[in-house]
Amino acid sequence: MIFPQSPSHDMHTPPSDIQRYRKLFREALRIRLVEEKLIELYPFDKIQSPMHLSIGQEAVAVGVCEALRKEDLLFITYRGHAFYLAKGGDLRLMMAELYGRATGVSKGKAGSMHLAAPSVGVMGASAVVASTLSLAVGAALAHRIQKKDGLSVVCFGDGATEQGTYHESLNFAALYSLPVFFLCENNGLAVHANLAERQSYQIHQHARAYGIESMRLEEGWDFLKVGDAAASIATAIRQDGKPRLLEVITCRYKEHVGPGEDFAAGYRSQADMDAWKAEDALCQDAALIHALRPELDTEIAAAVAFAEASPVPDISELLTDVI
Ligand SMILES: Cc1ncc(C[n+]2csc(CCOP(=O)(O)OP(=O)(O)O)c2C)c(N)n1
Ligand SMILES: [Mg+2]
User: Fold this and answer.
1) Which end of the chain, C or N, has fewer beta carbons within 10 A?
2) Residue 42 C-alpha to ligand 1 middle, in angstroms?
3) Residue 167 pLDDT > 60, yes or no?
4) Is the Cβ atom of 59 under 6 angstroms away from ligand 1?
């Protein structure tokens, strides 16, 4: 089925927009196919850590990273495959990392939940909810003191806004006018708890209590709109050095952690997810998937082969780089 609004098939869409649509679609599809491959591999016990899949949320990572530069620092979460790849992290090294191999991006010690690739600005992830917010604020302060350019971008979930460190980080960034891009991926869920039963506030509105300008985007399936919103925010921060917050509504298709679906648990509805999928170009633009898939499948197969052929770390490596 062809996605009705797909710019790739709309004769009135300018060629530059079609090109942009295809580029971002390809990046989002690449992430989805990587994670679908991980789902295939998971039952064979090859992935050496729990994995929190981004399937359904790829457009947020792809749109935001379109607005970022290589030197911008990005702090991510345990649900970080999409952002790692969208920021330019190496797929083969990520696959080897998930396999726990010595060739992994962190020599097999970090696994899925702690991806980092400082050479492309992916500064790290953490399993501790909201813990990278303060790291991002600290990095922005360091940039300011060292008179370096570049944003400090931190991605976090809606649940993270319930942590004390979230509020301390927003307050500090606002008070000292630091160039931090706070990005909330609001999937409306924290493990098995719905946002409606957890929060009395609107995340984007609440940020304004700290004097932080903010924006909320409902259409988190649309990588073009996410890209536009992120670009306007990144430009504003680059101009005046003040923090901003972008809240993007999105949808996680899989269970909180692991490769399955968990509608039987009763905390979310299949109908809501299906409504989201009806808007998701990755579920609808079959023609573009057909065109792009062979090349992406080849790249992903090569990454899996690299991981499979890589050695496990030697016992002598056990305590290196960990403290
Ligand atoms: C400080 C802390 N408290 C609780 C947990 C357990 N926990 C893991 S993920 C999660 C939910 C986080 O939800 P959200 O921030 O919305 O991110 P999402 O998983 O939806 O991407 C919780 C409570 C944790 N890892 N760290
Ligand atoms: Mg959430």
Assistant:
1) C
2) 22
3) yes
4) no
pLDDT exceeds 90 at position 2: no
Residue nearest to atom 18 of ligand 1 (CA): 157
Residue 191: CB within 6 Å of ligand 1?
yes
Cβ of 195 less than 6 Å from ligand 1? no
In the predicted model, what is the mean pLDDT of the chain? Answer: 95
pTM of the model: 0.95
| 291/306 Cα distance (integer angstroms) | 25
Task: Report all structural domains of the chain as residue ranges with CATH numbers, in order of start.
Answer: 11-212+239-310 (3.40.50.970)
* Residue 307: other Cβ atoms inside 10 A: 24
Q: What is the pLDDT of residue 4?
A: 40
- For residue 127 and ligand 1, the question of a CB distance below 6 A is answered with yes
Cα of 274 vs centre of ligand 1, distance in Å, is 24
pLDDT tens, position by position, 284-294 = 999 999 999 99
CA distance to 62, 191, 270, 290, per residue, from 254 (Å): 19, 11, 11, 23
The pLDDT score that the predictor gives to residue 12 is 59
Side by side, the strands of the sheet bearing 244-249 are 122-124, 73-75, 152-157, 180-186, 244-249, 213-217
> Which residue CA neighbors atom 25 of ligand 1 most closely?
128
Pairing state of beta strands 193-194 and 189-190?
A: antiparallel
